[in-house]
Amino acid sequence: MIFALYRVMKEEKYAPRRAILPMLQAEEDERFVKEWKKYLKEEARIMKDVPGWKVGESVYKLGKWMPPATGVSS
C-alpha cells in the first residue's frame, strides 16, 4: 500500500517535467543555433587571412560528431 502511494506521488512530481521537456529542449536548440551562428561569424572574421581555413570545419578528424558543451548548466 505504502509503495503504491509513493509511486503515485513520484508520478505526480515527474509528469509535468516530462510534459514540458520538449518545449525546453526546443528553446535550448534555438539558443544554441543563434550562438553557433555568432561563433561562425566571429571565426570567419578572425581567420579571414589564414590561407586554406574553412569556417566551421572541425580541426579534428575523429569521424564522430559530438555536440559541443554549451557551458550552461540546467
Automatic annotation (TrEMBL):
Coiled-coil segments: none
Keywords attached to this entry: Electron transport, Membrane, Mitochondrion, Mitochondrion inner membrane, Respiratory chain, Transmembrane, Transmembrane helix, Transport
Main location: mitochondrion
Span of the signal peptide: none
Pfam family, any one: GRIM-19
Membrane topology: Single-pass membrane protein
Transmembrane spans: none
Subcellular location: Mitochondrion inner membrane
UniProt cross-references to InterPro entries, sorted A to Z: GRIM-19 (IPR009346)
One cellular component term from this protein's GO annotations in UniProt: mitochondrial inner membrane
Similarity comment: Belongs to the complex I NDUFA13 subunit family.
Function statement: Complex I functions in the transfer of electrons from NADH to the respiratory chain. Accessory subunit of the mitochondrial membrane respiratory chain NADH dehydrogenase (Complex I), that is believed not to be involved in catalysis.
Protein's UniProt name: NADH dehydrogenase [ubiquinone] 1 alpha subcomplex subunit 13
Species of provenance: Anisodus acutangulus
